[in-house]
Design a protein that fits this description.
mainly beta, 47% strand, Rieske Iron-sulfur Protein
Length: 100
């Protein structure tokens, strides 16, 4: 069973938005898709763009550097065959937890 660490408060990420949080030495992009929280490495595997600063439309985030798109529920690119690391999340009370 995975160990979960507090990532942020649910109120830190409004629906339809993203934020970037440092946890356990990693920079994590956190996305709120209709109340479901998803966590990816913040670094786009294409050229290193900050995914947490990208535009979120539904389940797709668009990297702000070169417009590559990733499904935040799987980490898979819809632009190419690249995958960004995805982390399991869960909500307990008002906290979003992450398994690293």
């Amino acid at each position: 069973m995975a160990d979960f660490t507090r990532l942020c408060a649910t109120s830190d990420v409004a629906p339809g938005t993203a934020t970037t949080i440092q946890v356990s030495g990693k920079e994590i992009a956190v996305f709120n898709v209709d109340g479901a929280y998803h966590a990816l490495d913040n670094t786009c595997p294409h050229r290193g763009g900050p995914l947490g600063e990208g535009e979120l439309e539904g389940c797709l985030v668009t990297c702000p550097w070169h417009a590559w798109q990733f499904d935040v529920t799987s980490g898979e690119s819809v632009t190419d065959d690249l995958v960004v690391a995805r982390y399991e999340t869960r909500v307990e009370g008002d906290d979003v937890l992450i398994a690293l």
